[in-house]
Amino acid sequence: MIPGLAGMARMPYRTFAVFNITGGVVWANQTVLLGYFAGVSWRRAEHLATGLGLLLLALFTLGLGLPLLVCTLRQRLDPAVPGGPALSAALTVAALSLGMFAVLTADVLTGAGIVRLDPGVHAFAVTHRSGWLSLVLQALTWLGSTIVLIPLLAGASVLVLGRRRDLPTAAVLWIGFGGALILYKLIKSLVDRARPPATDMITHATGAAYPSGHATQAIVGWGLLALVLWGGRSARIRLVLLTLTTGVVLLVGASRIYLGAHWFTDVLAGYALGGAWLALTVALHLKWTVASTSDGQGRRETASGP
Fold this sequence. Notes:
By secondary structure, this protein is mainly α. The protein has helices spanning 2-8, 13-38, 42-76, 84-110, 118-127, 131-140, 146-162, 167-191, 213-230, 235-258, 264-303. 78% of the residues lie in helices and 0% in strands. The protein starts with a helix and ends with a helix.
């Protein structure tokens, strides 16, 4: 990979040779020394060597890609570019959320990392249950279900089609929510993680646990509903809308842990997966909006021309 990347970057051969030889010497020596000093702990040595190798590759790739990244961000963050900053923010959120989901999935598959918190969080939730709180959270958990979200999205579609005649926004609502359903169901079948013990559940839940479907649906569904109401609102209304949406999403996730339907990391993964898909859906909506605005301006300019 490295010679190809260096060639694409038009690195002078002499510079490439010096750094390539230096890197090879450093890598070879650190690998041999790790193996020698680790002795019987060869698994740990292998892990460390792999980590250091990946770190060196990441640093080299970053060095090649950083100028291109800076140039791209300069264009995307230019306020003069229609939708540029908002689109950049959406894509950044998508990338961060996908990274978080990848880390969580790796921890779940290996049983390491943050997964070790799951038994403790589950035990805390079970031992701190109360009658009134159970009733409240059993009701609130429905806010992340398809039974509630699909009718709400259908009403939002009627609103944008009937009052605004905004077909792209109506299409984005169902692309976003339908895509989220397909994604989390597919990942559930691939990971196939067991739920918490059935004896601890105080709600009906079947199938695999990872990621939480309610958490994924909540962040995507309520995020899309907020998107419909976002345009043309004042900063104060948008803040209230964002606060309410965040509160609903967090309550749905907390209810899944409290009711014993999911582990803590299931809910976090649902948020990460849903957040990534929602951000990509918003980016798609922004692209369509900018494209339709540009087409409208072009037609007006043509009509008013000589």
